[in-house]
Design brief:
The chain is of the alpha+beta class and 196 residues long. A hairpin with a 2-residue loop joins β14 and β15.
Length: 196
Amino acid sequence: MQRDAEMHMTMSLHPRRSRTVRVAAALLSLSALTACGAQHAEGAGGPAPTTSFTEQGVTVTLSVPDWHASKGTLTAVFTPERKGFHLYSTDLPAGGVEGVGRPTAVSVSGSLAAAGRLTASAEVRSITVPGVETPLPVYPDGPVTTTLPVRADANGDATVLIGYASCSTRDGCTIPVSGRPVHLHVTGDGPTFNPH
């Protein structure tokens, strides 16, 4: 009887042990594949060039996440530092509406040229502010990601010009930023941001 009990315990331990071994082997294999994939991705294209700055209550992070055959996408993420602040639509007129607001803007010059239109990831909504009859097109409070297709016309230096204004219906607006330059250098491998 005791021998039967010992045999049953031994048999019941083996499936657990072999299941544990199988799970451990699978996890090790997955880790190895993930590590190989990460090395391959970094070796193939490297991390996307990125830079950021903070001005007038908004942090702007620029990157070029994809670059192939002299073309890519310039991404700009605009993040207001304070809760309750929004950015104005890219379609707002350059001077605002009745002098209020400034459009979210990204443009390029030098060895980079725009290969399409600037688009934003957020839905536009309209708000009204005291003293302005016309509703203003804005994005919801918080971060907004814009993308601009770009192409390299030649190797050399390029400039990204950034414009925006952030506003809160409760706390008012920050001073607009207009034509804030960010410098890049473009080679056959793609663009890299110059240090500040």
